[in-house]
């Protein structure tokens, strides 16, 4: 009996210890369970441009401010069943397919997205502008309209881009439209118009849909200037238990890093704060639909299926494990100011005061150009010189002799004047109809007319050898001080490389070999249209892009080392309309970077702080030079824009100086609209003098290396006087 009692006591002790352990375990996880119960609703972002988080940073900031938890997977542009189950808000940002290669939305995801909204989810469609004259963004435009039709929402996204010459503000590259908030909704109440909008398509809306923003009566589609009238540019609707919101992807991501040609106002406007107020309210009210009509009118007819092929697959259950997910973007920690190399110190001491033009011109035009730059206080000329022609890549013998004569003439006019000539080189260069060694392949296997960013043939046979020739030539022609590589591929498709390339045979095979993929692996037999998805579903896409980026970095390093082996102090720069955070440009710029000798970035962007922070985090040292299109400026704008460029940027470049020395060879938008030649040069001179005075005070007050302090560098005066010949 005593033995039985002891056994029962021991059993009770074991049960008690186990119960205590379970209770302790439960108490350990109780805070987590409670926290998850009160967790903020999740907002999933899918961007088919596959931008890095810096581009979506302002959108994610607004979501967090409104109480959401944003979630973004840069290297998995797909929706899964787990996403629809766990998310409260689904934000879909259109890519450029098929016009600009990108993976694009899966047609098989349309039914589950419709069901997500029916069950109470909020769907945000960030649409891309378009045109019936091309197929940019047609894939998502069709599928987004199909979703709206299946939801029976009377709303349709048009294949256009709304512009307005009358009610507009000057942006860096064109006039952008003023738009008006439509009162009567919580998102627009308290928001004063007009608002400065980025590129947007128009929306057709029916009964029950709430229009939020409209263009003016003077607006029209870019492709049809005769079709004038107000257009709805943002709208929302209640749909069963959920809600749908539609507006331009570029408006939705306003304030983030760059992903395209910039469109912010040329000069900061107070109305921009009203736009931010509108966007904050838009995000704040994402989960509220009680202010919207419960009954909707008849939906538009279903969209016509486009002619291009779209592969349809089933909805994935969940993304691959260990996939990187982010909820925001954080700038890198501040870095102590470094000392520039003596050969580059003048960039920060003086600021770059430059202009752009082609320099293969007749003698009189070159003389007027040199005289204007020297007398107006400019210190850099970005002159496109086509060095590949000297190698015979294209052009006749007569053209080569004429070009070389222009080089000699320009050097004679600029040497010892304080104006440096940066040689402009176009990539890939030459007529856009000429055959290339290889072509970029898109994520869906689509062919392009752009060169393969993986293939170094054009660089090793044409561009780098021609730059070596130029560097040798510059030893006896001291005005040539560096090179600027124009990375826009004029006349080709796409115009610039997105993250939807390069999935060609060679880079893909080389990648498989680099990761030790077995020779009998199915990966080696995949067609170009299968490679992207194969990588994505195996969680290898990020590693593949890193592999491609390393190739671009090696290319940039090769160019830099070849050029600086001859001219160690040469300036190296690049042009793109806006800073592009794509794998090719990121790698190429890192390869061009050298300690104490930053890369010059010539773009049209007004605000670059986030972009430069992102580049710095990626190991890229860059100085930004702001582009100013003279057709967008008035006489009174020059001083303020020059001051801003020399304080917040590394300087400015004017486009295009040809309009101040010739009657042809430029576009109307590249010419001052309210001044003649002489008045324009005097305006530039006065604005430079005032901006330089401010720059001098700023440099003297700047803590840091000794090369960034002290008196300004004195520039030698030209032997050419204004209004006189040589």
Summarize the structure in words:
- The chain is an alpha/beta fold and 726 residues long.
- Helix content is 34%, strand content 17%.
- The chain contains 19 helices and 24 strands.
- Strands 1, 2, 3, 4, 7, 8, 9, 11, 13 and 14 form a ten-stranded mixed beta sheet that branches. An eight-stranded parallel barrel has the order 15-16-17-20-21-22-23-24.
- A hairpin with a 5-residue loop joins strand 18 (439-441) and strand 19.
- The radius of gyration is 29 Å and the shape is globular.
- It starts with a helix and ends in a 25-residue tail after the last helix.
In short:
Helix 15 runs parallel beside helix 16 and helix 18 packs parallel to helix 19 (677-701). This protein has 726 residues and is α/β, with parallel strands linked by helices.
| Strand segment count | 24
Largest sheet: 10 strands, mixed
Mean pLDDT: 90
> Termini, distance in Å?
125 Å
The share of residues in helices is 25-40%
Shape: globular
The proportion of strand residues reads 15-25%
Number of helices: 19
Cα-based radius of gyration, to the nearest Å: 29 Å
Low-confidence stretches: 18-36, 704-726
The secondary structure category is alpha/beta
Which tags fit this structure?
single chain, 726 residues, alpha/beta, ten-stranded mixed β-sheet, eight-stranded parallel barrel, 19 helices, 24 strands, globular, disordered C terminus
How are the secondary structure elements laid out?
Layout: H1 2-37, E1 42-47, H2 57-65, E2 69-72, H3 81-86, E3 87-93, H4 110-118, E4 122-127, H5 138-150, E5 155-157, E6 162-163, E7 168-170, E8 175-181, E9 195-196, E10 203-205, E11 210-215, E12 220-221, E13 232-239, E14 242-248, H6 249-252, H7 271-284, H8 345-350, E15 352-358, H9 363-375, E16 380-384, H10 387-390, H11 397-414, E17 420-426, E18 439-441, E19 447-451, H12 457-474, E20 480-486, H13 505-514, H14 531-537, H15 541-564, E21 571-575, H16 583-592, E22 599-603, H17 609-617, E23 622-629, H18 638-647, E24 651-655, H19 677-701
Parallel strand pairs: 1-2, 1-3, 3-4, 4-14, 15-16, 15-24, 16-17, 17-20, 20-21, 21-22, 22-23, 23-24
Antiparallel strand pairs: 5-10, 6-12, 7-8, 8-9, 8-11, 11-13, 13-14, 18-19
Helix pairs in contact: 4-5, 9-11, 12-15, 15-16, 18-19
């Amino acid at each position: 009996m005593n033995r039985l009692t002891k056994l029962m006591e021991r059993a009770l002790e074991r049960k008690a210890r186990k119960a205590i352990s379970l209770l302790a375990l439960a108490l350990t996880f109780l805070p987590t369970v409670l926290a998850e119960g009160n967790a903020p609703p999740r907002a999933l972002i899918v961007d088919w441009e596959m931008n890095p988080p810096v581009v979506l940073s302002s959108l994610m900031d607004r979501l967090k401010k409104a109480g959401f938890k944003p979630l973004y997977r840069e290297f998995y542009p797909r929706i899964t069943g787990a996403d629809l189950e766990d998310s409260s808000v689904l934000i879909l940002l259109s890519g450029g397919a098929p016009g600009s290669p990108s993976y694009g939305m899966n047609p098989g995801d349309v039914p589950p997205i419709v069901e997500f909204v029916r069950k109470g989810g909020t769907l945000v469609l960030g649409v891309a502008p378009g045109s019936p004259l091309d197929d940019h963004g047609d894939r998502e435009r069709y599928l987004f309209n199909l979703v709206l039709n299946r939801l029976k929402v009377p709303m349709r996204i048009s294949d256009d881009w709304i512009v307005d010459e009358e009610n507009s503000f000057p942006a860096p590259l064109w006039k952008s439209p003023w738009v008006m908030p439509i009162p009567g909704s919580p998102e627009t109440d308290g928001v004063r118009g007009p608002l400065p909008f980025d590129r947007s398509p128009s929306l057709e809306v029916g009964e029950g849909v709430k229009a939020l923003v409209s263009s003016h009566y003077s607006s029209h589609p870019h492709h049809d200037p005769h079709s004038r009238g107000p257009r709805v540019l943002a709208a929302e609707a209640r749909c069963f238990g959920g809600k749908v919101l539609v507006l331009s992807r570029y408006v939705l991501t306003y304030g983030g890093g760059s992903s395209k040609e910039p469109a912010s106002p040329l000069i900061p406007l107070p109305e921009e704060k009203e736009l931010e107020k509108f966007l904050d309210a838009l995000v704040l009210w994402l989960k509220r639909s009680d202010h919207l009509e419960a009954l909707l009118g008849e939906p538009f007819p279903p969209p016509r299926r486009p002619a291009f092929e779209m592969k349809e697959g089933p909805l994935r259950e969940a993304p691959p494990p260990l996939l990187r997910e982010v909820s925001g973007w954080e700038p890198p920690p501040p870095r102590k100011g470094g000392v520039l190399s003596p050969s580059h110190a003048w960039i920060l001491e003086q600021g770059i005061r430059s202009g752009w033009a082609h320099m293969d011109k007749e003698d009189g035009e070159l003389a007027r150009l040199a005289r204007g730059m020297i007398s107006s206080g400019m210190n850099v000329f970005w002159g496109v010189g086509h060095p590949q022609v000297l190698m015979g890549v294209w052009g006749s013998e007569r053209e080569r002799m004429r070009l070389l004569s222009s080089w000699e003439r320009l050097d004679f006019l600029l040497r010892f004047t304080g104006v440096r000539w940066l040689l402009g080189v176009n990539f890939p260069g030459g007529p856009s109809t000429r055959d290339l060694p290889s072509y970029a392949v898109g994520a869906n296997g689509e062919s392009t007319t752009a060169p393969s960013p993986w293939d170094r043939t054009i660089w090793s046979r044409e561009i780098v050898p021609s730059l070596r020739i130029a560097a040798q030539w510059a030893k006896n022609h001291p005005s040539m001080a560096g090179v600027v590589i124009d990375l826009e591929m004029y006349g080709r498709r796409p115009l610039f490389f997105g993250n939807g390339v390069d999935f060609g045979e060679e880079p893909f095979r080389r990648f498989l070999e680099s990761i030790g993929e077995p020779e009998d692996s199915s990966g080696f037999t995949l067609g170009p249209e299968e490679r992207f998805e194969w990588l994505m579903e195996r969680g290898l896409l990020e590693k593949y892009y890193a592999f491609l980026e390393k190739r671009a970095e090696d290319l940039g390093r090769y160019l830099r080392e070849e050029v600086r082996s001859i001219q160690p102090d040469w300036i190296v720069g690049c042009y793109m309309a806006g800073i592009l955070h794509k794998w090719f440009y990121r790698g190429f710029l890192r390869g061009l970077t050298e300690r104490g000798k930053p890369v010059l970035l010539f773009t049209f962007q007004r605000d670059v702080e986030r972009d430069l922070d992102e580049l710095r985090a990626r190991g890229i040292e860059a100085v930004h030079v702001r582009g100013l299109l003279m057709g967008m400026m008035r006489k009174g704008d020059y001083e303020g824009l020059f001051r801003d460029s020399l304080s917040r940027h590394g300087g400015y470049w004017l486009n295009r100086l040809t309009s101040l020395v010739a009657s042809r060879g430029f576009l109307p938008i590249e010419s001052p609209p309210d001044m003649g030649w002489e008045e324009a040069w005097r305006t530039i001179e006065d604005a430079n003098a005032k901006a330089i005075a401010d720059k001098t005070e700023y440099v003297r007050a700047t803590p840091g290396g000794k090369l960034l302090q002290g008196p300004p560098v004195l520039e030698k005066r030209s032997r050419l006087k204004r209004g006189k010949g040589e």
